[in-house]
Specification:
Layout (H helix, E strand, L loop, with lengths): L1 H7 L2 H9 L2 H35 L6 H5 L4 H22 L8 H10 L6 H16 L7 H18 L4 H20 L2 H13 L4 H22 L19 H31 L7 H15 L8 H8 L5 H21 L6 H22 L7 H17 L2 H12 L5 H19 L3 H8 L7 H8 L13 E3 L4 H10 L4 E5 L5 E6 H14 L5 H4 L7 E2 L4 H11 L3 E5 L5 E6 H20 L3
Parallel strand pairs: 1-2, 4-5
Antiparallel strand pairs: 2-3, 5-6
């Protein structure tokens, strides 16, 4: 029958059916979001340049060269003044007076059904761009991820899409933002899937790929087809005997990643203890940053200039070791004091310095087996960043795309995997998850919980219930409770507001008490007035908790004014929970 029906469709009907297909619509929206997120990422970088030009008189990533001709007082004062402006902006224009970043995207995806505010996303991007422009030692990738996700969430909200599509389009914004920033479409796709969406089903994979490709096209049209980091020479593995050296580098990178994360948290705790207004704290951080920049100007901004220098083997061992320490402190102070920004660029910076320093030592010991200091620098970049972000797959792909080097892929995989495993075992979580836990946000099981929270109980309420007035005598109560199949009646007042419930147990106790005291009792006198109840806009997660805590089979449901609307049966809640879990599993398999 289905084949005959398909054969009878006219060409126009087939075209209409194709256009109305969910995946076609989703792919079309992915193009729009990819273009919007890509343009937003470019605008973000331009705003950084404008701020940098205003305060320092130059623009671009070569900060060390740019500030070399500036007076010392300007180098010190710009982060201080900029810190005050950033602090005031965050205090009055961002939720809770706190910066926004990748953790908020993860939280929105896992617990809020992908809901994010575009207004907050733009404001957070402004705060981050201003922070980087005045020299804060933070990354620009986290802010563009947040901005891209906000764009995807905004469009999804305007179109009133469901939870699954909401999350997919949010991932489209993330992928396009990453792809535009790094000219790395593959890494953008896998970062969005690994960190944000949480699965690799085709239903989400195809739209995210489209959005990432669109973002890459926009980046290449404007910036040209160049990787973010250009290797000065071709690299290749000298010997398979180097693999133990790569493994050792992975261990060292894990230690560097853990030390970096602990330093940021320590700085945050230290600044929290300062009994001064929040907006003043970035000024203190800016002062410390400016003083460090007088000796080590490489710590200012995203640090790509220093990363390129390490890849070109331009830094001696002492400087590489010094920059590991100073950059860790600078980033910890910047983020801990309240500047807005990400951690990917600092992680890449630290990985380059760790790998470069390790490469110099390893090459001096076994020069005939070494692939060169630059190779170890690349490997260190992936190992440290992968451990900090908790995203080894996308980080490996990102390093590959940033360097366009096939030969080192296996080495990067070894070091990054080992570094990520050690960090997970020792530290227990990525930097983003640690930030969420410190805010009291629990993500484990978050996507299932978010799905349950998106399903309300209003359609499961049984409206046929027996009720009695508060003044009803016990004889009338007995007659009504015998009629109901629920074994329970509800007491309401003149305005039909719920006042309590009565089962056979309360009725029997009430009859005994009435006979004992010889006083006529009413329905309200014997009713349970503190029984568990739910509002009609409650979700199935709340319903499960209510049934579990009370042990009740039926729970009364009321509206916002307390008027009884019906009852909820635990069987219906259990069935809705089962369907929600099946939906989540089907989505991950790509059956949606």
């Amino acid at each position: 029958m289905s084949e005959d029906k398909g054969a009878r469709l006219s060409p126009l009907q087939q075209i209409r059916q194709f256009i109305q297909n969910e995946q076609v619509i989703l792919s079309s929206l992915a193009v729009i979001i990819g273009a919007a997120a890509g343009l937003a990422a470019m605008a973000f970088r331009h705003f950084i340049d404008l701020v940098q030009m205003f305060f320092y008189g130059f623009q671009g990533e070569k900060v060390s060269v740019g500030i070399s001709g500036l007076p010392w007082w300007q180098i010190v004062l710009v982060p201080v003044i900029g810190g005050g402006i950033v602090g005031l902006f965050i205090r009055y224009f961002l939720p809770d007076g706190k910066p926004q970043g990748v953790p908020h995207v993860i939280e929105a995806t896992a617990l809020k059904g992908g809901r994010m505010s575009l207004k907050i996303g733009v404001r957070a991007a402004i705060a981050s761009a201003f922070s980087i422009g005045v020299g804060a030692s933070v990354g620009r990738e986290g802010p563009v991820v947040h901005l891209g996700a906000s764009i995807g969430a905004w469009l999804s909200k305007r179109l009133h899409l469901g939870y699954s599509l909401f999350r997919t389009l949010l991932g489209c914004g993330v992928a396009a933002a990453i792809a535009t920033s790094f000219n790395a479409p593959i890494a953008g796709v896998f970062f969005a899937l690994e960190v944000v969406v949480g699965h690799y089903a085709l239903s989400a994979f195809a739209p995210i790929v489209i959005a990432s490709v669109v973002g890459t096209i926009i980046s290449r049209i404007y910036y040209g087809d160049f990787p973010a980091f250009i290797l000065p020479k071709a690299m290749s593995l000298s010997s398979f005997w180097e693999f133990p050296a790569f493994a050792i580098l992975g261990i060292i990178s894990a230690l560097a990643a853990i030390a970096f994360m602990w330093s940021v948290i320590f700085a945050e705790d230290t600044f929290k203890k300062l009994n001064i207004p929040f907006w003043c704290k970035p000024m203190i951080g800016g002062l410390a940053l400016g003083v460090m920049a007088l000796v080590f100007p490489q710590v200012l901004g995203v640090g790509y200039e220093a990363t390129d220098a390490a890849l070109s083997e331009l830094y001696p061992l002492w400087l590489l070791l010094a920059l590991i320490v100073v950059k860790t402190i600078a980033t910890a102070v910047s983020l801990g004091s309240g500047f807005s920004g990400g951690v990917f660029s600092p992680s890449i910076f630290l990985g380059a310095m760790v790998g470069g320093a390790y490469g110099i030592v390893a090459t001096s010991i076994f020069p005939e087996l070494s692939s060169g200091t630059g190779a170890y620098t690349v490997i260190g970049m992936g190992a440290v960043a992968g451990a900090v972000l908790g995203a080894p797959v996308s980080t490996i792909l990102m390093i590959f795309e940033l360097t366009n080097d096939y030969a080192l892929t296996i080495a990067v995989m070894i070091a990054t995997s080992l570094s990520s495993v050690i960090t997970q075992q020792v530290h227990g979580r990525s930097f983003f998850m640690w930030q969420l836990e410190r805010r009291g946000v629990e993500i484990r099981g978050g996507r299932e919980a978010s799905l349950m929270r998106s399903i309300t109980i209003s359609h499961m309420v049984h409206c046929e219930v027996s009720t009695v007035d508060t003044t009803a005598d016990l004889q009338h109560v007995r007659e009504e409770i015998r009629k109901t199949r629920l074994g329970q009646i509800f007491v309401i007042d003149e305005e039909e507001r719920l006042k309590g419930s009565i089962t056979f147990i309360e009725l029997a106790d009430g009859l005994d008490l009435q006979e004992e005291k010889g006083v006529a009792l009413t329905a309200l006198d014997i009713a349970r007035t503190k029984a568990v109840q739910l509002e009609e806009d409650s979700n199935i997660e709340q319903a499960l908790q209510a049934h579990g805590a009370s042990g009740e089979v039926y729970i009364p449901v009321i509206d916002e004014e307390g008027i009884l609307k019906g009852v909820l049966h635990e069987h219906d809640v259990a069935l809705a929970y089962k369907k929600a879990m099946e939906q989540a599993r089907a989505e991950e398999r790509g059956d949606m």
